[in-house]
Design goal:
GO molecular function: voltage-gated calcium channel activity
Distance between the termini: 63 Å
Number of helices: 12
Order of helices and strands: EHHHEHEEEHHEEHEHEEEHHEHEH
Protein name: Calcium channel, voltage dependent, alpha2/delta subunit 3
GO cellular component, one term: voltage-gated calcium channel complex
Radius of gyration: 28 Å
Number of domains: 2
Bound molecules: 2-acetamido-2-deoxy-beta-D-glucopyranose
Keywords: Calcium, Calcium channel, Calcium transport, Coiled coil, Glycoprotein, Ion channel, Ion transport, Membrane, Signal, Transmembrane, Transmembrane helix, Transport, Voltage-gated channel
Strand content: 5-15%
Membrane topology: Single-pass type I membrane protein
Length: about 400
Protein backbone atom coordinates (compact mmCIF):
# COMPACT_ATOMS: atom_id res chain seq x y z
CA UNK A 1 0.00 0.00 0.00
CA UNK A 2 2.99 2.30 0.32
CA UNK A 3 5.37 3.77 -2.14
CA UNK A 4 8.59 2.76 -0.51
CA UNK A 5 11.69 4.70 -1.13
CA UNK A 6 14.60 2.83 0.33
CA UNK A 7 17.50 4.94 1.52
CA UNK A 8 15.26 7.90 1.46
CA UNK A 9 17.31 9.58 4.17
CA UNK A 10 20.24 9.66 1.87
CA UNK A 11 18.21 10.89 -0.96
CA UNK A 12 16.60 13.64 1.02
CA UNK A 13 19.84 14.62 2.50
CA UNK A 14 20.96 15.40 -1.00
CA UNK A 15 17.96 17.55 -1.52
CA UNK A 16 18.14 19.44 1.70
CA UNK A 17 21.75 20.31 1.39
CA UNK A 18 20.92 22.41 -1.62
CA UNK A 19 19.45 25.82 -1.77
CA UNK A 20 16.27 26.53 -3.64
CA UNK A 21 17.80 27.83 -6.84
CA UNK A 22 19.99 24.77 -7.13
CA UNK A 23 17.07 22.48 -6.63
CA UNK A 24 15.32 24.28 -9.41
CA UNK A 25 18.31 24.02 -11.67
CA UNK A 26 18.80 20.36 -10.88
CA UNK A 27 15.17 19.54 -11.22
CA UNK A 28 15.29 20.73 -14.77
CA UNK A 29 18.61 19.00 -15.32
CA UNK A 30 17.09 15.73 -14.21
CA UNK A 31 14.27 16.20 -16.60
CA UNK A 32 11.78 16.79 -13.84
CA UNK A 33 12.66 13.55 -12.05
CA UNK A 34 12.80 15.14 -8.64
CA UNK A 35 9.43 16.70 -9.16
CA UNK A 36 7.82 13.44 -10.12
CA UNK A 37 9.39 11.71 -7.14
CA UNK A 38 8.00 14.22 -4.74
CA UNK A 39 4.64 13.95 -6.45
CA UNK A 40 4.77 10.21 -5.92
CA UNK A 41 5.79 10.71 -2.38
CA UNK A 42 3.00 13.03 -1.49
CA UNK A 43 0.74 10.75 -3.48
CA UNK A 44 1.71 7.99 -1.12
CA UNK A 45 0.63 10.06 1.83
CA UNK A 46 -2.68 10.52 0.17
CA UNK A 47 -2.91 6.79 -0.32
CA UNK A 48 -2.21 6.25 3.34
CA UNK A 49 -5.08 8.48 4.31
CA UNK A 50 -7.35 6.67 1.97
CA UNK A 51 -6.18 3.43 3.43
CA UNK A 52 -6.90 4.57 6.95
CA UNK A 53 -10.45 5.14 6.01
CA UNK A 54 -10.50 1.54 4.83
CA UNK A 55 -12.06 2.56 1.61
CA UNK A 56 -11.09 1.81 -1.94
CA UNK A 57 -8.40 -0.51 -0.69
CA UNK A 58 -8.63 -2.81 -3.63
CA UNK A 59 -8.34 -0.17 -6.26
CA UNK A 60 -5.01 1.05 -4.95
CA UNK A 61 -1.91 -0.41 -6.54
CA UNK A 62 1.23 -1.30 -4.66
CA UNK A 63 4.35 0.17 -6.14
CA UNK A 64 7.83 -0.28 -4.88
CA UNK A 65 10.66 1.93 -5.98
CA UNK A 66 14.18 0.65 -5.61
CA UNK A 67 15.79 3.53 -3.75
CA UNK A 68 19.33 2.36 -4.37
CA UNK A 69 18.76 2.23 -8.08
CA UNK A 70 17.11 5.60 -7.95
CA UNK A 71 19.96 7.21 -6.07
CA UNK A 72 22.51 5.57 -8.37
CA UNK A 73 20.61 6.83 -11.34
CA UNK A 74 20.53 10.32 -9.96
CA UNK A 75 24.22 10.14 -9.11
CA UNK A 76 25.05 9.23 -12.69
CA UNK A 77 22.97 12.08 -14.00
CA UNK A 78 24.41 14.47 -11.46
CA UNK A 79 27.92 13.49 -12.38
CA UNK A 80 27.11 13.95 -16.02
CA UNK A 81 25.66 17.35 -15.29
CA UNK A 82 28.67 18.49 -13.31
CA UNK A 83 30.98 17.12 -15.95
CA UNK A 84 29.20 19.18 -18.57
CA UNK A 85 29.37 22.31 -16.44
CA UNK A 86 33.03 21.79 -15.70
CA UNK A 87 33.67 21.22 -19.38
CA UNK A 88 31.88 24.45 -20.30
CA UNK A 89 33.91 26.35 -17.72
CA UNK A 90 37.14 24.82 -18.93
CA UNK A 91 36.41 25.95 -22.47
CA UNK A 92 35.84 29.49 -21.22
CA UNK A 93 39.06 29.51 -19.24
CA UNK A 94 41.05 28.26 -22.21
CA UNK A 95 39.52 30.80 -24.54
CA UNK A 96 40.18 33.59 -22.04
CA UNK A 97 43.80 32.58 -21.56
CA UNK A 98 44.41 32.29 -25.25
CA UNK A 99 42.76 35.61 -26.07
CA UNK A 100 44.67 37.33 -23.31
CA UNK A 101 47.95 35.87 -24.53
CA UNK A 102 47.30 37.08 -28.06
CA UNK A 103 46.34 40.56 -26.95
CA UNK A 104 48.78 43.43 -26.80
CA UNK A 105 47.79 46.20 -24.41
CA UNK A 106 47.17 49.40 -26.30
CA UNK A 107 46.51 52.50 -24.17
CA UNK A 108 44.94 54.31 -27.14
CA UNK A 109 42.64 51.49 -28.12
CA UNK A 110 39.21 52.71 -29.22
CA UNK A 111 36.58 50.02 -29.03
CA UNK A 112 32.82 50.23 -28.97
CA UNK A 113 31.26 47.51 -26.89
CA UNK A 114 27.74 46.76 -25.76
CA UNK A 115 27.53 48.30 -22.33
CA UNK A 116 24.79 46.58 -20.33
CA UNK A 117 23.42 49.89 -19.04
CA UNK A 118 23.74 51.96 -22.21
CA UNK A 119 22.35 49.58 -24.82
CA UNK A 120 19.20 50.86 -26.50
CA UNK A 121 19.55 54.26 -24.76
CA UNK A 122 19.09 57.32 -26.93
CA UNK A 123 19.95 60.96 -26.39
CA UNK A 124 17.50 63.87 -26.83
CA UNK A 125 17.89 63.77 -30.58
CA UNK A 126 17.06 60.10 -30.70
CA UNK A 127 20.59 58.96 -31.51
CA UNK A 128 22.15 55.98 -29.82
CA UNK A 129 24.47 56.98 -26.99
CA UNK A 130 28.11 56.00 -27.04
CA UNK A 131 28.72 52.38 -26.02
CA UNK A 132 24.98 51.93 -26.44
CA UNK A 133 23.68 51.04 -29.83
CA UNK A 134 20.72 49.01 -30.87
CA UNK A 135 20.65 45.69 -29.14
CA UNK A 136 17.89 43.29 -30.04
CA UNK A 137 16.32 41.64 -26.99
CA UNK A 138 13.65 38.97 -26.90
CA UNK A 139 11.78 37.49 -23.93
CA UNK A 140 13.02 33.97 -23.25
CA UNK A 141 11.26 31.35 -21.21
CA UNK A 142 14.53 29.72 -20.16
CA UNK A 143 15.67 32.98 -18.56
CA UNK A 144 12.56 33.63 -16.50
CA UNK A 145 11.01 35.47 -19.41
CA UNK A 146 13.66 38.17 -19.24
CA UNK A 147 14.46 39.82 -22.54
CA UNK A 148 17.81 38.49 -23.67
CA UNK A 149 20.01 38.34 -26.72
CA UNK A 150 21.40 34.86 -27.32
CA UNK A 151 24.14 35.86 -29.75
CA UNK A 152 25.90 38.55 -27.71
CA UNK A 153 27.16 39.08 -24.20
CA UNK A 154 27.05 42.52 -22.60
CA UNK A 155 29.60 44.25 -20.41
CA UNK A 156 28.84 45.97 -17.14
CA UNK A 157 31.23 48.46 -15.58
CA UNK A 158 30.67 49.65 -12.00
CA UNK A 159 29.31 53.18 -11.81
CA UNK A 160 32.38 54.49 -10.00
CA UNK A 161 34.65 53.46 -12.87
CA UNK A 162 35.20 55.08 -16.23
CA UNK A 163 33.56 53.17 -19.09
CA UNK A 164 36.37 54.04 -21.48
CA UNK A 165 39.28 53.56 -19.15
CA UNK A 166 42.07 52.02 -21.29
CA UNK A 167 42.38 49.05 -18.91
CA UNK A 168 38.68 48.33 -19.26
CA UNK A 169 38.57 48.87 -23.01
CA UNK A 170 41.55 46.55 -23.54
CA UNK A 171 40.03 43.90 -21.28
CA UNK A 172 36.65 44.14 -22.94
CA UNK A 173 38.33 43.93 -26.33
CA UNK A 174 40.23 40.71 -25.77
CA UNK A 175 37.43 39.09 -23.77
CA UNK A 176 35.17 39.54 -26.80
CA UNK A 177 36.57 36.12 -27.78
CA UNK A 178 34.44 34.60 -25.03
CA UNK A 179 31.27 35.40 -26.92
CA UNK A 180 31.65 32.51 -29.27
CA UNK A 181 32.37 30.11 -26.41
CA UNK A 182 29.32 31.34 -24.48
CA UNK A 183 27.13 30.68 -27.49
CA UNK A 184 28.69 27.26 -28.17
CA UNK A 185 28.37 26.25 -24.55
CA UNK A 186 24.73 27.13 -24.50
CA UNK A 187 24.10 25.20 -27.67
CA UNK A 188 25.95 22.17 -26.31
CA UNK A 189 24.27 22.26 -22.93
CA UNK A 190 20.90 24.01 -22.98
CA UNK A 191 20.51 23.54 -19.22
CA UNK A 192 23.09 26.27 -18.69
CA UNK A 193 21.66 29.52 -17.48
CA UNK A 194 23.92 32.52 -17.06
CA UNK A 195 27.56 32.45 -18.03
CA UNK A 196 29.75 35.29 -16.94
CA UNK A 197 33.27 36.51 -16.64
CA UNK A 198 34.41 38.83 -13.85
CA UNK A 199 37.62 40.70 -14.54
CA UNK A 200 40.09 41.90 -11.95
CA UNK A 201 39.85 45.27 -13.73
CA UNK A 202 36.25 45.44 -12.57
CA UNK A 203 34.23 44.79 -15.69
CA UNK A 204 31.71 42.02 -15.86
CA UNK A 205 30.82 40.22 -19.08
CA UNK A 206 27.52 38.42 -19.04
CA UNK A 207 25.86 36.03 -21.45
CA UNK A 208 23.20 36.14 -22.71
CA UNK A 209 23.04 39.89 -23.16
CA UNK A 210 20.45 41.67 -21.02
CA UNK A 211 19.77 45.28 -20.27
CA UNK A 212 20.73 46.53 -16.83
CA UNK A 213 18.79 49.29 -15.15
CA UNK A 214 20.36 51.58 -12.55
CA UNK A 215 18.59 52.19 -9.24
CA UNK A 216 16.63 55.37 -8.57
CA UNK A 217 19.86 57.30 -7.95
CA UNK A 218 21.21 56.31 -11.33
CA UNK A 219 23.74 54.03 -9.72
CA UNK A 220 24.67 50.41 -10.33
CA UNK A 221 26.45 49.28 -7.20
CA UNK A 222 27.30 45.89 -8.60
CA UNK A 223 31.03 45.23 -8.72
CA UNK A 224 31.81 41.64 -9.59
CA UNK A 225 34.95 41.81 -7.48
CA UNK A 226 32.86 42.11 -4.31
CA UNK A 227 30.84 39.02 -5.01
CA UNK A 228 31.33 35.90 -3.00
CA UNK A 229 32.05 33.75 -6.05
CA UNK A 230 34.73 36.15 -7.17
CA UNK A 231 36.44 36.39 -3.80
CA UNK A 232 36.37 32.65 -3.39
CA UNK A 233 37.96 32.15 -6.74
CA UNK A 234 40.47 34.97 -6.36
CA UNK A 235 41.78 34.26 -2.88
CA UNK A 236 43.35 30.90 -2.57
CA UNK A 237 41.88 28.41 -0.11
CA UNK A 238 43.59 28.49 3.25
CA UNK A 239 44.08 26.29 6.26
CA UNK A 240 43.97 28.36 9.41
CA UNK A 241 44.58 27.44 13.03
CA UNK A 242 43.42 30.11 15.43
CA UNK A 243 45.21 30.20 18.77
CA UNK A 244 43.40 32.11 21.50
CA UNK A 245 45.23 33.13 24.63
CA UNK A 246 43.07 32.33 27.68
CA UNK A 247 45.66 33.03 30.34
CA UNK A 248 44.69 35.04 33.43
CA UNK A 249 45.61 38.38 31.89
CA UNK A 250 42.85 37.91 29.33
CA UNK A 251 40.07 38.09 31.96
CA UNK A 252 37.10 40.33 31.31
CA UNK A 253 36.98 42.72 28.42
CA UNK A 254 40.03 41.29 26.73
CA UNK A 255 38.47 37.89 26.48
CA UNK A 256 35.30 39.43 25.11
CA UNK A 257 37.31 41.22 22.44
CA UNK A 258 39.24 38.04 21.73
CA UNK A 259 35.97 36.17 21.16
CA UNK A 260 34.77 38.84 18.80
CA UNK A 261 38.09 38.80 17.04
CA UNK A 262 37.91 35.08 16.49
CA UNK A 263 34.36 35.37 15.32
CA UNK A 264 35.36 38.01 12.79
CA UNK A 265 38.25 35.90 11.59
CA UNK A 266 35.73 33.15 10.97
CA UNK A 267 33.67 35.60 8.92
CA UNK A 268 36.55 36.05 6.53
CA UNK A 269 36.83 32.32 5.91
CA UNK A 270 34.77 30.70 3.20
CA UNK A 271 33.63 27.26 2.15
CA UNK A 272 36.98 26.50 0.56
CA UNK A 273 38.92 27.11 3.76
CA UNK A 274 39.64 24.81 6.69
CA UNK A 275 40.18 25.80 10.29
CA UNK A 276 40.30 24.87 13.95
CA UNK A 277 40.47 26.91 17.15
CA UNK A 278 42.72 26.14 20.08
CA UNK A 279 42.64 28.01 23.36
CA UNK A 280 45.80 27.90 25.43
CA UNK A 281 47.13 28.80 28.85
CA UNK A 282 49.61 26.42 30.43
CA UNK A 283 47.66 23.70 28.62
CA UNK A 284 46.02 23.52 25.28
CA UNK A 285 42.26 23.14 24.95
CA UNK A 286 40.52 22.47 21.70
CA UNK A 287 37.51 24.75 21.67
CA UNK A 288 35.58 21.80 20.29
CA UNK A 289 37.20 18.75 21.93
CA UNK A 290 35.57 16.36 19.47
CA UNK A 291 37.58 17.93 16.70
CA UNK A 292 40.88 17.44 18.41
CA UNK A 293 43.82 17.26 16.04
CA UNK A 294 42.18 18.08 12.73
CA UNK A 295 40.80 20.91 10.64
CA UNK A 296 37.21 21.33 9.54
CA UNK A 297 35.68 23.04 6.57
CA UNK A 298 34.82 26.66 7.24
CA UNK A 299 31.23 26.30 6.16
CA UNK A 300 28.46 28.07 7.95
CA UNK A 301 27.41 25.18 10.17
CA UNK A 302 30.91 24.55 11.45
CA UNK A 303 31.59 28.23 12.01
CA UNK A 304 28.36 28.67 13.96
CA UNK A 305 29.14 25.58 15.97
CA UNK A 306 32.55 26.90 16.96
CA UNK A 307 31.11 30.31 17.76
CA UNK A 308 28.85 28.69 20.34
CA UNK A 309 31.82 27.01 21.98
CA UNK A 310 33.70 30.30 22.17
CA UNK A 311 31.28 31.48 24.84
CA UNK A 312 32.50 28.72 27.11
CA UNK A 313 36.07 29.98 27.21
CA UNK A 314 37.30 31.40 30.47
CA UNK A 315 40.62 32.94 31.38
CA UNK A 316 42.99 31.61 34.01
CA UNK A 317 46.56 30.50 34.51
CA UNK A 318 49.59 31.51 32.55
CA UNK A 319 49.95 31.55 28.81
CA UNK A 320 52.55 29.22 27.35
CA UNK A 321 52.50 29.70 23.64
CA UNK A 322 55.17 27.21 22.68
CA UNK A 323 53.10 24.10 23.07
CA UNK A 324 50.12 25.65 21.32
CA UNK A 325 52.30 26.64 18.40
CA UNK A 326 53.73 23.13 18.15
CA UNK A 327 50.23 21.71 18.14
CA UNK A 328 49.14 24.14 15.44
CA UNK A 329 52.10 23.29 13.26
CA UNK A 330 51.47 19.60 13.76
CA UNK A 331 47.84 19.87 12.71
CA UNK A 332 48.68 21.94 9.66
CA UNK A 333 51.39 19.58 8.66
CA UNK A 334 49.28 16.46 9.17
CA UNK A 335 46.41 18.02 7.34
CA UNK A 336 48.58 18.91 4.41
CA UNK A 337 49.57 15.26 4.12
CA UNK A 338 45.95 14.24 3.73
CA UNK A 339 45.76 16.07 0.44
CA UNK A 340 42.71 17.98 1.57
CA UNK A 341 42.73 21.67 2.30
CA UNK A 342 45.06 24.05 0.57
CA UNK A 343 48.43 23.18 -0.81
CA UNK A 344 50.34 26.30 -0.02
CA UNK A 345 48.28 28.68 2.09
CA UNK A 346 48.44 27.85 5.74
CA UNK A 347 48.28 30.30 8.59
CA UNK A 348 48.30 30.40 12.35
CA UNK A 349 46.32 33.27 13.77
CA UNK A 350 47.33 34.27 17.22
CA UNK A 351 44.86 36.17 19.35
CA UNK A 352 46.54 37.39 22.52
CA UNK A 353 47.17 40.47 24.61
CA UNK A 354 50.88 40.30 24.16
CA UNK A 355 53.15 37.88 22.41
CA UNK A 356 56.56 39.14 23.24
CA UNK A 357 58.64 36.07 22.67
CA UNK A 358 59.07 34.96 19.14
CA UNK A 359 59.48 31.23 19.73
CA UNK A 360 62.29 30.90 17.27
CA UNK A 361 62.89 27.29 18.15
CA UNK A 362 59.34 26.25 17.32
CA UNK A 363 59.58 28.03 14.04
CA UNK A 364 62.91 26.59 13.17
CA UNK A 365 61.70 23.13 13.92
CA UNK A 366 58.41 23.28 12.04
CA UNK A 367 58.54 26.05 9.54
CA UNK A 368 61.89 25.55 7.91
CA UNK A 369 63.22 22.25 9.15
CA UNK A 370 65.62 22.04 6.25
CA UNK A 371 66.97 25.56 6.44
CA UNK A 372 67.85 27.80 9.30
CA UNK A 373 66.45 31.13 8.30
CA UNK A 374 65.55 33.96 10.55
CA UNK A 375 61.89 34.51 11.26
CA UNK A 376 61.49 37.66 9.30
CA UNK A 377 62.32 35.84 6.09
CA UNK A 378 59.78 33.86 4.16
CA UNK A 379 57.43 31.84 6.32
CA UNK A 380 56.15 28.56 5.12
CA UNK A 381 53.20 28.95 7.41
CA UNK A 382 52.14 32.52 7.90
CA UNK A 383 51.92 33.53 11.53
CA UNK A 384 49.69 36.50 12.05
CA UNK A 385 49.64 38.25 15.35
CA UNK A 386 46.57 39.91 16.52
CA UNK A 387 46.84 41.48 19.90
CA UNK A 388 43.46 42.18 21.43
CA UNK A 389 44.47 45.76 21.93
CA UNK A 390 44.68 46.31 18.23
CA UNK A 391 41.66 44.26 17.37
CA UNK A 392 39.84 47.07 15.66
CA UNK A 393 42.63 47.87 13.25
CA UNK A 394 43.21 44.28 12.72
CA UNK A 395 40.61 43.38 10.16
CA UNK A 396 41.69 45.95 7.69
CA UNK A 397 45.04 44.30 7.77
CA UNK A 398 44.01 40.73 8.02
CA UNK A 399 43.02 40.07 4.45
CA UNK A 400 45.86 42.20 3.19
CA UNK A 401 48.45 40.32 5.14
CA UNK A 402 47.03 36.95 4.20
CA UNK A 403 47.09 38.02 0.62
CA UNK A 404 50.62 39.25 0.95
CA UNK A 405 51.87 36.11 2.62
CA UNK A 406 50.24 33.76 0.23
CA UNK A 407 51.15 35.69 -2.85
CA UNK A 408 54.75 35.78 -1.78
CA UNK A 409 54.76 32.11 -0.92
CA UNK A 410 52.89 30.89 -3.92
CA UNK A 411 54.38 32.78 -6.79
CA UNK A 412 53.52 30.85 -9.88
C1 LIG B 1 21.65 40.46 -30.66
O1 LIG B 1 21.89 41.82 -30.87
C2 LIG B 1 22.63 42.10 -32.07
C3 LIG B 1 22.88 43.61 -32.08
O2 LIG B 1 21.69 44.28 -32.02
C4 LIG B 1 21.86 41.64 -33.27
O3 LIG B 1 22.62 41.86 -34.44
C5 LIG B 1 21.56 40.17 -33.14
O4 LIG B 1 20.71 39.75 -34.19
C6 LIG B 1 20.86 39.90 -31.81
N1 LIG B 1 20.71 38.48 -31.66
C7 LIG B 1 19.56 37.90 -31.42
C8 LIG B 1 19.58 36.41 -31.28
O5 LIG B 1 18.54 38.56 -31.30
C1 LIG C 1 6.82 33.10 -19.66
O1 LIG C 1 5.74 33.64 -20.38
C2 LIG C 1 4.87 32.65 -20.97
C3 LIG C 1 3.86 33.34 -21.83
O2 LIG C 1 3.68 34.67 -21.47
C4 LIG C 1 4.24 31.85 -19.83
O3 LIG C 1 3.42 30.84 -20.36
C5 LIG C 1 5.35 31.20 -19.01
O4 LIG C 1 4.81 30.50 -17.91
C6 LIG C 1 6.33 32.24 -18.50
N1 LIG C 1 7.45 31.57 -17.89
C7 LIG C 1 8.00 31.97 -16.73
C8 LIG C 1 9.17 31.20 -16.25
O5 LIG C 1 7.60 32.94 -16.11
C1 LIG D 1 43.34 14.76 21.75
O1 LIG D 1 42.93 13.39 21.69
C2 LIG D 1 43.94 12.49 22.09
C3 LIG D 1 43.44 11.10 21.85
O2 LIG D 1 42.07 11.01 22.10
C4 LIG D 1 44.33 12.74 23.54
O3 LIG D 1 45.36 11.87 23.91
C5 LIG D 1 44.81 14.17 23.68
O4 LIG D 1 45.09 14.48 25.01
C6 LIG D 1 43.78 15.13 23.16
N1 LIG D 1 44.36 16.46 23.16
C7 LIG D 1 43.71 17.53 23.58
C8 LIG D 1 44.47 18.78 23.57
O5 LIG D 1 42.57 17.48 23.97
C1 LIG E 1 51.93 20.82 1.55
O1 LIG E 1 52.28 19.72 0.73
C2 LIG E 1 52.70 20.07 -0.57
C3 LIG E 1 52.91 18.82 -1.36
O2 LIG E 1 53.52 17.83 -0.61
C4 LIG E 1 53.98 20.92 -0.47
O3 LIG E 1 54.40 21.30 -1.77
C5 LIG E 1 53.67 22.15 0.33
O4 LIG E 1 54.83 22.92 0.52
C6 LIG E 1 53.12 21.77 1.69
N1 LIG E 1 52.69 22.99 2.36
C7 LIG E 1 53.10 23.32 3.55
C8 LIG E 1 52.58 24.61 4.06
O5 LIG E 1 53.82 22.63 4.20
Amino acid sequence: MLVKIKHKCFFFFLLFSLNASFVKLWASAFGGEIKSISAKFSGSQLLQKVHKRKELVKSVKVEEIDGVKLVKNLAVKMEEMFRKKAEATRRLVEAAEEAHRQHEENPDLQYEYFNAVLINEVDEEGNNVELGGEFILEPNDHFNNLSVNLSHSVVQVPTNMYNKDPDIVNGVYWSEALNKVFVDNFETDPTLIWQYFGSAKGFFRQYPGVKWHPDEHGVIGFDCRNRKWYIQAATSPKDVVILVDVSGSMKGLRLTIARQTVSSILDTLGDDDFFNIIAYNQEIHYVEPCLNGTLVRADRTNKDHFREHLDKLFAKGIGLLGEALSEAFTILNDFNQTGRGSVCSQAIMLVTDGATEMYDDVFEKFNWPERKVSLDLAFRVALLFCTVLTATHFFLNFLLSLHFFFRSKCTF
